[in-house]
Amino acid sequence: MARLGELERAVMDVLWARGTPEPPSDGATVREVTDALADRDLAYTTVMTVLDRLAGKGMVVRQRDGRAWRYQPAAPREAYIAQLMLEALDIAQAGEAAAETGDRGAALVRFARSVTGQEAELLRAALEEQSRPAGEGT
Amino acid sequence: MARLGELERAVMDVLWARGTPEPPSDGATVREVTDALADRDLAYTTVMTVLDRLAGKGMVVRQRDGRAWRYQPAAPREAYIAQLMLEALDIAQAGEAAAETGDRGAALVRFARSVTGQEAELLRAALEEQSRPAGEGT
DNA sequence: GCGACTCTACTACGAGACGTCGTACGACCC
DNA sequence: GGGTCGTACGACGTCTCGTAGTAGAGTCGC
Fold first, then answer.
1. Under CATH, to which class is A6-73 assigned?
2. Is the predicted ipTM greater than 0.95, yes or no?
3. Do the Cβ atoms of B1 and B80 come closer than 8 Å?
4. What global pTM score does this model have?
5. Which residue from A64, A83, A87 is spatially nearest to A75, judged by alpha carbons?
6. Are A123 and B106 inside 8 Å of each other by CB?
7. Per-domain residue ranges for chain A?
8. Nucleotide nearest to B56 (CA to C1')
9. Which of A47, A119, A122, B30 has its CA 20 to 30 Å from the CA of residue B104?
């Protein structure tokens, strides 16, 4: 996954905030993003460049809307974050054989100990759900 | 936490591989790291520079050993990884109020669904252990 | 005591990522 | 038909990182 710079992340935040990915959202135009980041006082073209680079990285997708483009996140924020977490976990594989749960396990344990109780609960629930056959109503 | 380049990570891997942090380990010298990375055919000073930068980033600590320095990881690999994971999770807070489990929760759920069954088990066990009073013998 | 090693400290340089724009130019609205 | 708005490109400065070279000081064998 692509690594994002500070401004790039800010732009993604704007997009994530207003356009959920799969559910139909019209996304945002360069102008809209620029306005959303008004406090940064950025040139219109700066935002355009960033959006363009984000598209190049596959972080956003765009579609024509008249003469302009509308950008929206290629994936929801959670997916991006989960991806980053998995990548972090992967560096535990340092030249060692895969499938082996060495440092990965240790890292997971450390991680589990670091999340707040509330989040631990969420994580536990998610794991639970995953191990279930799944498909239960609400 | 500092972000590491490719070579920096390789060097950290060497250090992590030979010098566990807290337990007394004498760490490795520039020479030793260079030898460990012999296949890369790097100049001695290249490794020295990298180790120096790593020290500047707080990733390694060093102590004199005669005229030379001995480097060792400032923290074990698992700690680094767990830290990266937590940081990834933190970007879920995008300008929103903290303490709220919005995207963080969603990200955790995504993550939970992505780890392999074996790791999910490990994670579950770690969470379990965390919620326990802890302090049980072996 | 001198020369060959070995280490460290600095300095450097090129590539690539990123923040930040400017310019040129086509499309639209009134 | 002249502003306005949007796009496409190109650019530049700063940082990070990989990669080293050089200078100079400490060490050891003879």
1. mainly alpha
2. no
3. yes
4. 0.88
5. A83
6. no
7. 6-73, 77-131
8. D16
9. A47
